Amino acid sequence: MSSREIVSPFVTSSYSGGGSANECVEVAHTADGGRAVRDSKDRAAGTQFHGPAEWAAFVAALKNGHLGG
After folding, report:
1. Closest residue by Cα to residue 24 from 34, 36, 14, 9
2. Which of 13, 17, 47, 56 has a Cα-to-Cα distance from 41 of 20 to 30 A?
3. What phi and psi, each to the nearest 5 degrees, are found at residue 61?
């Protein structure tokens, strides 16, 4: 099992802006329980991979309001 093996389809974030904003992020599950993240407007730019602990910390920070505008 590889941390870079993508095991689900990419899904566009429901928080991505519509209209002129077009700030779309796509996320997929990886085999180790982490996530793969890419920019839907520029998929050729590459994919970032985050392990399960990193992803959990990121989601917790979002939920606690530590990463927002």
Report:
1. 14
2. 56
3. -65, -40
